[in-house]
């Protein structure tokens, strides 16, 4: 019974990755940087702690602002890179990051999360396979990390890649939309 659910989850995740892969288009680096400054869309990432100690739980929250009503953004990929010698993602099951979606993601969107311990990153994909429901301004997601018992503690932060394998917003035209990252 569990194997059937696991296979379905893996199939959905792979379908989401393949669908989002269709959105990846090459953009000259200079042009992408200019677009990011003028897009009007901002992804704000906050954590409830910048200084950590052993056993702490850190909550990371990502929010969207400035999404036009006619943007057609039907999918997003969110990626955060962490230092595994300091923290570990709070998990559900084997490789799923324990997240809560926010009001930026409509209820009928498919949401998948994944933890890659080899590359020390977590990813969340949210999409509507029918491309008729769109992301909106608001909280995108929040997820938790636990500070390891053998970590030294102190100042800590995450890395949020913005290149093609990082954070993405894709519209129904297959375009990756530029954004400003505020972290």
Summarize this structure briefly.
By secondary structure, the chain is an alpha+beta fold. The protein has helices at residues 2-21, 29-38; strands at residues 42-47, 51-52, 57-65, 73-81, 87-89, 91-92, 96-97, 99-101, 110-116, 121-127, 138-147, 154-155, 168-171, 180-182.
Q: What attributes characterize this protein structure?
A:
2 helices; 4-stranded antiparallel sheet; elongated; 183 residues; 38% strand; alpha+beta
Description:
The protein starts with a helix and ends with a strand. It has two helices and 14 strands; from the N terminus they run ααββββββββββββββ. It is elongated and about 50 Å long. A hairpin with a 3-residue loop joins strand 6 (91-92) and strand 7 (96-97). The chain is of the alpha+beta class and 183 residues long.
**Low-confidence segments:** 9-37
Query: What is the molecular shape?
Result: elongated
Q: Tally the beta strands.
A: 14
**What is the rounded Rg?**
17 Å
- In percent, how much strand structure appears in the residues? 35-45%
């Amino acid at each position: 019974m569990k194997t059937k659910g696991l296979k379905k989850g893996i199939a959905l995740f792979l379908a989401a990755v393949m669908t989002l892969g269709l959105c990846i288009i090459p953009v000259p680096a200079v042009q992408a940087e200019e677009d990011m400054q003028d897009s009007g869309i901002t992804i704000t990432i906050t954590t409830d702690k910048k200084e950590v100690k052993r056993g702490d739980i850190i909550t990371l929250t990502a929010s969207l602002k400035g999404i036009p009503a006619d943007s057609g953004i039907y999918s997003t990929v969110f990626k955060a890179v962490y230092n595994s010698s300091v923290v570990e993602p709070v998990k559900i099951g084997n490789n799923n990051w324990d997240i809560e979606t926010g009001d930026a993601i409509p209820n009928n969107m498919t949401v998948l999360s994944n933890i890659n311990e080899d590359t020390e990153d977590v990813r969340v994909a949210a999409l509507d396979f029918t491309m008729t429901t769109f992301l909106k301004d608001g909280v995108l997601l929040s997820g938790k990390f636990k500070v390891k018992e053998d970590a030294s503690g102190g100042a800590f932060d995450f890395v949020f890649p913005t290149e093609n394998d990082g954070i993405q917003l894709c519209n129904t035209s297959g375009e990756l939309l530029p954004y400003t990252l505020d972290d």
